[in-house]
Amino acid sequence: MRTKKVKFNKTGIEKLPNNKPVVYKIITKGGRNNYTGIAQRGRVQDRIKEHLGNIPGTKIQVEQMNSISEAQKKETKIISRIQPKYNKQGK
Predict the structure, then answer these.
(1) Phi, psi of 24 (to 5 degrees)
(2) Residue 24 within a domain
(3) Quick check: is 54 in a domain?
(4) CA 59 – CA 81 distance, rounded (Å)
């Protein structure tokens, strides 16, 4: 899978690929994962823009997946292992 990291701002988000489902992480200046989520093909940029101003972070890291179900499995694994601060626990 292809991984890309950009600044967590409108300009950076607009550089992200929209052609496949992704698992994304909002990363702090110190490198901590504050939030992990998924976005469907065609909605990647819009989904991540919804977090601007709500979840602190300086970078977005996305990993493209072949299917949304594959993305959901990876998201669940990351959340249970890392327990990012802004994800609802128990997901």
Answers:
(1) -125, 155
(2) yes
(3) yes
(4) 20
**What is the model's pLDDT at position 88?**
84
pLDDT at 1: 67
What's the CATH code of the domain at 31? 3.40.1440
Residues 29 and 76 sit within 8 Å (Cβ to Cβ) = no
* 3 within 8 A of 65, measured Cβ to Cβ: no
Determine the Cα–Cα distance for residues 87 and 57; give it in Å rounded to an integer: 14
Give the pTM: 0.94
Q: Is 40 part of any domain?
A: yes
Domain count, the chain: 1
Task: Pick out the chain residues at pLDDT < 50.
Answer: 91
DSSP string, 9-69: SHHHHTTS--SS-EEEEEE-TTS-EEEEEEE-TT-HHHHHHTTTTTS--SEEEEEE-SSHH
Work out whether strand 59-64 and strand 22-27 pair parallel, antiparallel, or are unpaired. antiparallel
pLDDT of residue 29: 96
